[in-house]
Amino acid sequence: MASWSPDTPCSCDCFVSVPPASALPAVIFAKNSDRPRDEVQEVVFVPAGTHAPGSRLQCTYIEVEQVSKTHAVILSRPSWLWGAEMGANEHGVCIGNEAVWTKEPVGEGEALLGMDLLRVVLFSSPLCSQHLAECLAQDRGSTIYERPLISSVEGVHNISNQLSIGSDISAEHPELRPHAQVQGWWDGQGTFDFAQVFSLSQQPVRMEAAKARFRAGQELLQQQQGGITAEVMMGILRDKESGICMDSGGFRTTASMVSVLPRDTTQPCVHFLTATPDPSRSVFKPFIFGVGAAQPPQVLSPTFGAQDPVRTLPRFQTQVDRRHPLYRGHQVALGLMESEQARGQQLRQKQRDLEQEGLVAVRRLLTRECAPPAQELGGLFQAFVEKETQAYS
Predict the structure, then answer these.
(1) Can 12 be counted among the known catalytic residues?
(2) Which domain of life is it from (predicted)?
(3) Fewer CB within 10 Å, N or C, the chain?
């Protein structure tokens, strides 16, 4: 299978809806992860834990100090790295990673990836005001964080690989403006517009495509304001005409996620994840934190220990097959959809039916039509992963 290299450009789209833009009293978060087309993305559940003083945490390239207590998280991540493209923790906090291009130079040497920061923050933060990632949502509202400042969101908002915070800044690092002045990017007079000050004057060609996706996403959100649901967000993530559902050359949408974060904290947050590429031909499966939540082995990639190309130096010199069982079955299904019309249509219908089953179950849960046992809620994702795996066998 193809391996990622540090020189590979990335693109992604994040969306959020805050009441009254949502059809229900909940924040709805969505993200497509657009990556090299053969890169495998797995879904990883990590339970809450406690850690001894002085513990160290191995991230993708470097170690950092471990906190004493970590929250349970669900992550959708490229299987070769430690961090994640998107995820949520047990407190209803969601984060999506976005690649952006700015005037700040790329540092020398290995460090934490943006995706590592995402996982670190989900592990340690129950509150969105503490976050250190680009786009995040929490049941009390939604926040855009473009290091090192924060802006609150009302209504709908989307990001497509560009700085989106202008002058509407809720909180910022005290050295942000002095730094911009020292670099000669801002004269210290007039309105401070973060995106304008820090964005590149001559932007890479790929930014034109990002701007087009941003405008299309903005229109799709605005068309649905007041009626946005998880299903509506899934439809936006599946939009191929705009490029939001990407399938271009060496790139495609490798995984997708939609989260429903009720403002009523007595109701559970629900996170729909695909664990497979191309959301237009994938199943969004519901995950709920709670008793019985566990790691489904069908969406976990094989590991290679010290022989992993990301661990051996120099890195990325060899390739390994990271496909997990659901990914393998899904790839066979995609092949049939493209080569055998009748069989392909049957498989696509199975996908639709399974996804609808999950959406109906969640809708009944959030409208209090039913109250399944906690063990059943915690095992919901596992049950749907098993059903999808069986559909492809």
Answers:
(1) yes
(2) Eukaryota
(3) C
